[in-house]
C-alpha cells in the first residue's frame, strides 16, 4: 500500500477564541469542503477555504476506513469542535498510513458536517 506524505507548508498561530488561547496551524493551501457527505465516495466539494488545524488524529488504516464509510455517525471526540474562523474553518485533521488526509469541521456537532480531503 502506498503511503501518502503531506508536505504542505503550515503556519503556526495563537488566537484567542471565546476567551481561550488556542494554538492553530494554517495550511498553506485552500481547500474545497463538502457538506454532510455520507462517505468519501459521495463528496461534492465546493469553494476554497483557509484551513486551520486545531488537532491531528492519527488512525490505523482499518479505523480510518470504518470512519470514512460512515461520516455522519456520532463521535464523542468531534463534539463541540470546528466552526468558521476568519476566512476559514477550524478543523480536525485525520490521517492514517496509505489513506488521504481529511479535514473535518463538525461546526459544533459530533459528526462530519464539513469535509475536505487531500489525496
Account of the protein in words:
- With about 120 residues, this protein is mainly beta.
- It has one domain (about 10-119).
- The chain has one helix and seven strands.
- It has one helix at about 60-70; strands at about 10-15, 20-35, 45-60, 85, 90-95, 100-105, 115-119.
- A hairpin with a 2-residue loop joins strand 4 and strand 5.
- It is globular and about 35 Å long.
Strand order, main sheet: write it out. Answer: 2-3-5-6-7
Measured between the Cα atoms of the first and last residue, the distance is 14 Å
Number of strands: 7
- Structural class label: mainly beta
Entry keywords:
7 strands; mainly beta; single chain; 119 residues
In short:
With 119 residues, the protein is mainly beta. It has one helix and seven strands.
Strands, helices and their partners?
Blueprint (H helix, E strand, L loop, with lengths): L9 E8 L2 E16 L10 E13 L2 H9 L13 E3 L2 E8 L5 E5 L8 E5 L1
Parallel strand pairs: 3-5
Antiparallel strand pairs: 1-2, 2-3, 2-7, 4-5, 5-6, 6-7
